[in-house]
Amino acid sequence: MSQPAFVGIDVSKDSLEVHIMPSEEHFQVNYDQDGVNQIVQKLRSLNLQVIVMEATGGYEQALASEVCLADLDKICILNPRFVRDFARATKQLAKTDRIDAKILARYGQTFNLQPQPLPDPAQQRLKNLVSRRQQVVKARTAENNRLQQASDTWIKASIKRIIAPLDQEIKTIDYQIQQTIKQNPSWYAKAKSLKKIKGIGDTTACSLLAYLPELGALNRRKIASLAGLAPFNRDSGKLRGKRMIRGGRADVRKALYMPALVASQHNTIIRNFYLKLIKAGKPPKVALTACMRKLLITLNANLKNYQNNICLNS
Question: Where are the domains positioned within the chain?
Fold first, then answer.
């Protein structure tokens, strides 16, 4: 049997660079149906171990879907920062599409990466809808800020004409999100369970379902780390640095910021926790971050208990 093949694919808007380890074979194709078919045909001839790609803002999704449809679901999509750090560690400072494809394949081979399950179409749709809502809300916020600064009457009227359809579009997207959740009984039940916690509303519940589907399935440490809310040590020798959060899913932290702020004022448990940290001399931002972590852990535990009860009663 041939050696396990580790395939790196650098994805751009118009082209795909492919590098195969350990054979060191390399080729480029256009990012269209013919190019994808060429890649699939080549992959079928290999003793495929894993296909490594970077998250490229969505360009990789179509390729990943096509490869999975061809029953080659051995894909691992990486954070670009990890790949770049690996390249520097191997003294590869230059950056081209060809080099990036080789680095991806080498990364997969070095760490013996295992394939990761891709989100199912329904999960991806929910994530896309929630992301689209954030984009439209951001545009509306920008227009509202301009409205506050405008002094000319005509300019104000112009801004209001832009804000009105944005408000309507947000309502339309909210409806689509709710319909998508209602079509999935598991999501609908999870959303109801999440909203029982004071500070969690429809928007936050939907965001957590979209960006953190692992909620309720992991332990408290893993879920905090996945969200980027677990503090890391920064100690070396006699130096004892401040513990800081890093990495994780920024969208989850954004979704939890306002709920944690509300909970620190109106949720008795979170408020007492916040005041205790402030009294201990913690800066407000540090205390609020800790509240975000505590709120997430509480949501994770409640959802886990809910799912366990469902299993016991079934």
Answer: 5-110, 123-183, 185-314
